[in-house]
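stage 2 :: seqdesign
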């Protein structure tokens, strides 16, 4: 079987964490403004695509996107293409939004787009479950899917040796605490 349940349980030890997880202070986190332009590869969280489209990224993020090798996750692709089914075709702004998203997707180089493998899916499920239990989010508020997607992106970064670039400070800080070892580069919208 391509997923080692026992090995993943030994590595993550989800049963050992009982106390609620809290976000670390900003001073303990890596921010885009403190990152060198030349450095390791990035994998982009969906927040990056959305913030770039809405001109809400700080200059430091724009520079990292220019100078660093950027990888893309099939998870983000699914989150982006979701609008093609969700948006009302009769709404006057739908066509423009879909054209913009289409352009973003068509700009993703095929050789830089990766999908999570079976082992990542299994581990991501555990991480997402631990996040739901330890973060104190309300049940049924949609966090389960959101945490699963974030965990998949996080684990993809680990598998290719990349840092996660994201504006989602809380969720990725939590993931980094639960499964340390994946560099995260954070930013706040402008």
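stage 2 :: out
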């Amino acid at each position: 079987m391509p997923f080692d349940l026992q090995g993943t349980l030994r590595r993550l030890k989800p049963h050992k964490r009982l106390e609620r997880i809290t976000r670390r202070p900003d001073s303990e986190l890596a921010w885009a403004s403190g990152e060198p332009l030349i450095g390791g590869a990035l994998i982009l969280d969906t927040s990056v695509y959305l913030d770039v489209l809405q001109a809400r990224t700080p200059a430091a993020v724009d520079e990292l996107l220019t100078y660093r090798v950027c990888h893309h996750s099939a998870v983000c692709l699914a989150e982006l293409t979701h609008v093609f089914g969700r948006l009302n075709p009769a709404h006057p702004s739908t066509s423009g939004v879909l054209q913009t998203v289409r352009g973003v997707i068509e700009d993703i180089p095929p050789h830089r787009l990766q999908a999570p493998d079976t082992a990542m899916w299994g581990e991501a499920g555990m991480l997402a479950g631990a996040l739901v239990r330890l973060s104190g989010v309300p049940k049924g508020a949609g966090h389960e899917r959101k945490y699963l997607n974030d965990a998949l992106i996080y684990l993809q970064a680990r598998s290719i040796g990349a840092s996660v670039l994201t504006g989602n400070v809380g969720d990725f800080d939590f993931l980094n605490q639960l499964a340390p070892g994946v560099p995260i580069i954070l930013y706040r919208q402008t």
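stage 3 :: structure notes
- The CA atoms of residues 78 and 147 lie 15 Å apart.
- The helical segments are 5-12, 46-53, 59-67, 74-86, 94-106, 118-135, 143-160, 169-178.
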